[in-house]
Write a structure and sequence with these properties.
The chain is mainly alpha-helical. The chain contains ten helices and no strands.
Amino acid sequence: MSDLRREILDRARHLMVEDGYAHLSMRKIAAAVGCSATSIYLHFESKDALVHALIDEGFERLNARLQEAAEAHADPAERLGALARAYIRFGLENPEYYEVMFLLHPERMARYPVESYRRARRNLELIAEALEAGAADGTRAAAPTDVAAHVHWAAMHGVVSLLLARRVDVRVPEEAIVEAAVRYATEGLRTASVG
């Protein structure tokens, strides 16, 4: 990746989180990078293509974290917990990516490309695979894994969103919240029938 393309992506990500999608423009990005808007168009055909590239990059980084967590644990319950921790840690350590990936709600952005969506879905499939392995060895309820995977993801997303927004009681340590969320999500899916 060229240095200019990297700088464009980094500045655009920061500006979008700071000012919102509606206020992001190629001209603003160019001013922040110190190049012309024309130079940006050499790398991205539109603002939406640039935003999609940021989303893609975020999902690739998240997938690398989740793959590492999944590969480190053969036991399905341990793998599910490791996936939850990796997901939460990714979100808390990469707040700008997380916001671009999950929290921005642009009204008129071009639809996220289907092939990119399929690649992003690999992250959810890692959770589903851990749940299926748990159902196969009898440690998880035999529930529809697609529903259970979404419930697990929603729990982890809620933790990340609340912690990033600083909407939790500051007297409760962040690590205690993370570990409790991981425990409740994985234990709840151990016995609960979802769907």
